[in-house]
Amino acid sequence: MNTLVHLAAEEPQNPLLPPIPELVVGLIAFAIVFGFLAKKLLPNINKVLDERRDKIEGGIEKAEAAQTEAQDVLEQYKAQLAEARHEAARLRQEAQEQGATLIAEMRAEGQRQREEIIAAGHAQIEADRKQAAQALRQDVGTLATTLAGKLVGESLEDHARQSRVIDRFLDELEDKAEAAGSAGAAR
Amino acid sequence: MSADPTTVLAFETDCHIFSGCGFPAPSLWSFIFEPIAGDADSSFYFNKPMLLALLSTILVVGFFWLAFGKAKVVPGKLQMIGEAGYDFVRNGIVYQTMGKKDGEKYVPFMVALFFFVWILNLWSIVPLAQFPVTSVIAYPAGLALLVYVMWVSLTFKKHGFVGFFKNVTGYDKSLGPVLPLAMFIEFFSNLLVRPFTHAVRLFANMFAGHTLLVLFTIASWYLLNGIGIAYAGVSFVMVIVMTVFELFIQAVQAYVFVMLACTYIQGALAEHH
């Protein structure tokens, strides 16, 4: 039958009245779509989407962990560096202090040695002077007695008298010299 | 009747203006097809809309099978497109209207509904098919009926018999003396009119769109004689414009149909009316 023939024929069915066979076919067609999507395909994609989200979140977590670790390492390095600087400063300070002590010690030692040397020198000079004075006194005594003996013609070899006389004489001499010295200083 | 284009066009191919042939305007007959198999008078027949509906099933299932069958964490092109469509319905429609918690359960239904309806609509501008399956009331009516049954049973399950009645009639004491009238109107609107408008909104849009396309197409052909050729050109431009417009309307109507379905289900699940 041709559609043109329909045009001349009776009115078609009310377009708002659904033909049952098409209703059924439509519902079956939809049921198939729904069945496939609900049972297989959408669970499929949901699983993958979840997996993807987990992976992205895992990646972000990993990156965060790496960043935290890097931060930690950086802080460790900084702390170590600061410690090393402190240590270096401490060592320098110590060295300076040690140096200062050393110098002070050396100086004290030097002072001490100098004083020792000077004292030794002084003692030596004193001893020499005493020796010289002793020798001189003896020589002067000998010379004087010898001279006096020659003058007197008599041996004045009597030791006991001799020494007493000479000593008395020399003491007088010394007293005079001292008196003259102090008078000179006073003047 | 087979897919012979001359019979599909539903008018004689040599009928032009100024040739004594009247304008073969589109009519309700443009929406009625001779069965491909079986007898139209019995309940066992198979016609073009049925074929297109089954083809839609194959298309939707086939597409999602190719896209999601072997879904990968790093998606291919097809999977990306599928995911975009899936995400559009899930986030853009279901989560927006029902919220993530309530909506999750109905995502597969709504996704299936959206893509099935959209493809049914899309046949309108596919060459050779050129017929929106949803312009036959049976298809949107069946789907609207499904949503309606879901809505009614969910409301019963959630609120019980009294709760169902309160929910359907929008029982609200604060309305005072107007309450009986409001309840009557709400009852009428929710329980009786709503499934009808839900189906007819989709049906009528597709019906009108197809009528316009048929009208301009027939006119383009009919006017191809003498001075009429100029008008045929205008008419043909309108065919192109209407085709593009239909492409838009098809998607919008599929979206609206699913959006309303979500709103109804959400109303059934809501604690207070």
Protein model, in words:
Chain A: Pfam families: ATP-synt_B. Chain A: This is ATP synthase subunit b. Chain A: Its main location: membrane. Chain A: It is a single-pass membrane protein. The complex is a heterodimer of chains A (187) and B (273). Chain A has 187 residues and is mainly alpha-helical. Helices cover 89% and strands 0% of the residues of chain A. With 273 residues, chain B is an all-alpha fold. Chain B has one domain. Chain B has a two-stranded antiparallel ribbon with strand order 1-2. The radius of gyration of chain B is 23 Å and the shape is globular. The N and C termini of chain B lie far apart (52 Å). The relative contact order of chain B is 0.14. The chains are: A mainly alpha (187), B mainly alpha (273). At the A-B interface, helix 1 and helix 2 of A face helix 2, helix 3, helix 4, helix 5 and helix 6 of B.
Short description:
Chain A: Residues 60-101 form a coiled coil. Chain A has 187 residues and is mainly α.
Largest interface, chains and sizes: A-B, 40 and 57 residues
Order of helices and strands of chain A: HHH
How much helicity do the residues of chain A have?
over 70%
Order of helices and strands of chain B: HEEHHHHHH
InterPro entries (chain A): ATP_synth_B-like_membr_sf, ATP_synth_b/b'su_bac/chlpt, ATP_synth_F0_bsu_bac, ATP_synthase_B_chain
Keywords (chain A): ATP synthesis, Cell membrane, CF(0), Coiled coil, Hydrogen ion transport, Ion transport, Membrane, Transmembrane, Transmembrane helix, Transport
Family (chain A): Belongs to the ATPase B chain family.
Membrane topology (chain A): Single-pass membrane protein
